Give the backbone structure.
Amino acid sequence: MRVLGVDPGLTRCGLGVVDGRPGRAVMVAVGVVRTPSGGDPGERLVFLERELDAWLARFEPEVVAVERVFADTNITTVMTTAHATAIALLTATKRGIPVVFHTPTEVKAAVTGSGRADKSQVTAMVTRILGLDVAPRPADAADALALAICHAWRGAAEARLAALAARVPR
């Protein structure tokens, strides 16, 4: 299963593509889309859309895994993250690619075994799981790869269970 992980952000949006199945994952690509924080918000969103569309065209993922927006006390950050999330959802949906959401806790638990892991632990495990010589930087890139790994492992298992359940006579 090829998964594009998206760690949404308007200033920095992490992207990571992984080919994986439960217990196994290989990195295909990783990067960060950056937009100038002082730029026009609409232009920044258009730029993000173009970049995401290019990644979708180039890597042809079967699914896009996006981090679920976490509402904290900084409303401005939540709103710009939500805008970037909407661009990922829109861009993938226009291409007929399903979008799934995972919470930070789910992602941390999938790659580290603990939903309370910190960013350095997530980065270390992503590096180890993917057999990388160098840790992906910045953290947005590592988080995007973690999202892709999480879905490749958990999503594939959930899909198999759903397929089995569909075969059971009622």
Q: What stands out?
A: The first strand starts at residue 2 and ends at 7. The first helix runs from residue 41 to 59.
